[in-house]
Amino acid sequence: MFFFLAITISIDYQHNIFKNKMAAIAFCWVFPVLFGLAIEGVQHFFLPMRQGDLKDWFFDCLGYIHGFVAAKTFFKIKAKTNGKSD
After folding, report:
1. Which of 33, 52, 64, 84 is the right S-S partner for 43, CB 3.0 to 4.6 Å?
2. Which residues, in sequence order, are CB contacts of 45 under 8 Å at separation 6+?
3. Which run of H or of E encompasses 15?
4. Calpha distance 52→17 (Å, rounded)
5. CA gap 40, 79 in Å, rounded
6. Is residue 50 assigned to a domain?
7. Is 52 left (phi over 0), alpha (psi -120 to 50) or beta?
8. Contact criterion met (CB below 8 Å) for 10 and 17
């Protein structure tokens, strides 16, 4: 899930929807990390059939990083191929 979240956020980042760099950093990195932590907290404290785990949060963050790197690589390759004239 966090892999695909990173891809969608990267698309927004590529379209320069952010007014300043601090907003981009907060939205692209701080929000997903806190979102993953919040999900684990809700599971731990409010859902009796689920258990929150810091290892799960770590893997959420790892999935996000992999998704962000994959998206950045895709956009870099796309920019190189669009730059070539046929």
Report:
1. 52
2. 52
3. none
4. 33
5. 37
6. yes
7. beta
8. no
In a domain, 24, yes or no: yes
The whole-angstrom separation of Cα 1 and Cα 63 is: 8
Domain span including residue 51: 2-80
Place of tokens 């907290």: 41
Q: What's the pTM?
A: 0.79
**Single-letter code of the amino acid located at 3:** F
In this structure, is residue 60 part of a structural domain? yes
Return d(Cα 1, Cα 43) in angstroms, integer.
16
Q: Which two three-digit tokens encode residue 65?
A: 């990083």
Which tens digit of pLDDT belongs to each residue from 31-67? 999 999 999 999 999 998 888 899 999 999 999 999 9
Query: How many domains does one find in the chain?
Result: 1
pLDDT given for residue 59 in this prediction: 95
Nearest to 15 by CA among 31, 33, 28: 28
